[in-house]
Amino acid sequence: WIDYQSEVLFLNSKYEILYPKFQKNLNVDKINEMILSYKKNPNFFYFKNKIVLSYISHTNNIYIIDGQHRIELIKYLVENNYNSFIYLCCYIIDDENQQNELFNVV
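Predicted structure:
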C-alpha cells in the first residue's frame, strides 16, 4: 500500500500528473456526493480507494486513467486528517494509443 500523504505528494513534486485528453472534466457535484457518502459510511471507502495511473516514459508524465474524482475526495480527506491508505496501480505504457486502450478496459 502507499501512504497518500508521503508518496503521492512526492510523486506530485517529481512528476507532472495529468488527465488524458479523453478524460471527462471533473464533476464537482459528484465529488460532493462522494464526500457526503464518505461522511455517512466511512468504511465503504475501502471499496473506492483504488486509483489507476499510466506512465509514458518518453514524456515522463503520469496520467490519471481511473479515479479522478476519488483523488479529489482523497485530497479532501487528507485535509481533514484522514489516516488510511489507497491503492495505486500504475501501468508503464508506450504511447497514447495504449493509454486509450487501458482507459477503455478500466
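Summary: The radius of gyration is 14 Å.
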